[in-house]
Amino acid sequence: MASLHNVLLLGGSGKVAQLLTPLLLQRSWNVTSIIRDPAQIANLEKLGEGQSGKLSVLVRSLEDVTSEAQAKSLIDEVKPDYVVWSAGAGGKGAPERTFKIDRDAASHFIRASVATPSITKFVMISFIGSRLKKPSWWTEEIWQEDLNTTRKVLQRYYEAKVAADQVLYEEGKKRSDFAGICLRPGALTSEPAGKVRLGKIPVAKGTSSRASVANLTALLLDAPNVKNCWLDMLDGDEDPEAAVKKVVEEGVDAAEGEPFY
Question: What pLDDT score was predicted for residue 153?
Answer without folding.
Answer: 84
